[in-house]
Q: What sequence folds into this?
């Protein structure tokens, strides 16, 4: 079935759902970045400031798609920073550039970076089964698990099924928003279902793989996931406004934007529900990060430049496994902590999306760092299946050539 370009990019870059027909075709083979991915794309002109201003001009309480937007476009070709909307619809306080927000699945990029650092140090072999590092975690047997490599966890080809939650609807999630979840209990629940498919057979984008990776990080480092992340990435890069909250923490620390979800009213129309305070322990190393656009831009540029993960291991983040997506049957597009996108004009970019109720986030850019993009959009339907028009406009303006 043909899919409109607008819907393709919106679904792929804004919603960040599992790969499939939501993006242009991915590379069919599991190969590192080829010359066409490096030279081009090359951005040689400055970002289109007028287009970027238009993309966020109407953001605010009267916009049905987003209450606020923060945008940073950078790279060797120039930069642009802008914000619009309100930080709080109740007070009308204006949005501000250094506001903190929930970054959702962008957390996975940080988690993957720590694992790849450990691989570079010889503390973990990506080809070895995780069962050798975490004995008893994935039981074998007639209905049990075959060996699952650490690399298969990184690129979502492990075959481990997701754990059950309170339900998929916003209402079900909202009712349990302050629940504190033990990640080990999530893993046990997922493992009890048995494998979804043989390891390495398909790609299924799920949080559970990165929950297991966080447990592996704790085993290999002898410390908590949060401390490992801080010592290995946050402190060295000076990401002073980035954190992973404790399991009992519901609030966003420091100055932040409020997040809202639009819900239908019984008599018609919709109302905004404040979803800022939320316990993220069920997401942990797969989606618990809080940050700012400045910190995420710094991280993205350092990562792509090889200053976070050594370049030999960094190739894992730009390599797509040669399998099909579990849901769509299309070629896989997820890598270790990132995702490969092909824009309508053929430009290849790599990045990561993150969606939590009230917050939609993107990091990424051209691999040569000629253009990078980080945004936080306070989407009023961050987990919806329909495209977010504000985020779509930002992406198209940022990567225009």
A:
């Amino acid at each position: 079935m043909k899919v409109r370009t607008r819907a393709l990019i919106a679904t792929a870059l804004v919603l960040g759902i599992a790969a499939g027909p939501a993006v242009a075709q991915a590379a069919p083979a599991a190969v590192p970045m080829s010359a066409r991915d490096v030279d081009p794309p090359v951005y040689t002109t400055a970002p289109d400031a007028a287009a970027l201003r238009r993309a966020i001009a109407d953001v605010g309480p009267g916009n049905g798609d987003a209450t606020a937007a923060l945008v940073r476009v950078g790279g060797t070709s120039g930069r642009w920073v802008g914000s619009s909307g309100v930080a709080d619809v109740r007070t009308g306080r204006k949005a501000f550039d250094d506001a903190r927000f929930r970054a959702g699945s962008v957390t996975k990029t940080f988690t993957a970076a720590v694992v790849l650092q450990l691989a570079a140090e010889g503390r973990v072999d990506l080809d070895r089964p995780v069962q050798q590092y975490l004995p008893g975690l994935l039981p074998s047997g007639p209905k049990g698990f075959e060996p699952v490599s650490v690399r298969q966890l990184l690129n979502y080809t492990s075959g481990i099924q997701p754990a059950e939650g309170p339900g998929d609807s916003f209402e079900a999630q909202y009712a349990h928003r302050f629940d504190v979840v033990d990640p080990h209990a999530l893993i046990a629940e997922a493992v009890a279902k048995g494998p979804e498919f043989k390891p390495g057979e398909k790609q299924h984008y799920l949080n559970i793989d990165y929950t297991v990776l966080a447990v592996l990080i704790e085993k290999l480092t002898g410390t908590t996931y949060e401390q490992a992340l801080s010592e290995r990435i946050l402190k060295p890069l000076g990401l002073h406004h980035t954190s992973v909250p404790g399991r009992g923490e519901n609030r966003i620390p420091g100055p932040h934007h409020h997040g809202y979800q639009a819900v239908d009213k019984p008599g018609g129309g919709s109302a905004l529900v404040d979803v800022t305070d939320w316990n993220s322990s069920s997401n942990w190393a797969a989606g618990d990060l809080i940050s700012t656009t400045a910190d995420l831009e710094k991280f993205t540029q350092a990562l792509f430049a090889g200053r976070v993960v050594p370049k030999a291991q960094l190739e894992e983040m730009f390599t797509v496994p040669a399998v099909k997506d579990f849901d769509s049957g299309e070629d896989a597009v997820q890598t270790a902590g990132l995702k490969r996108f092909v824009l309508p004009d053929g430009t290849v970019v790599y990045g990561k999306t993150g969606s939590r109720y009230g917050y939609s986030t993107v990091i990424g850019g051209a691999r040569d760092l000629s253009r990078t993009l980080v945004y936080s959009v306070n989407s009023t339907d961050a987990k919806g299946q329909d495209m977010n028009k504000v985020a779509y406009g930002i992406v198209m303006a940022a990567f225009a050539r």
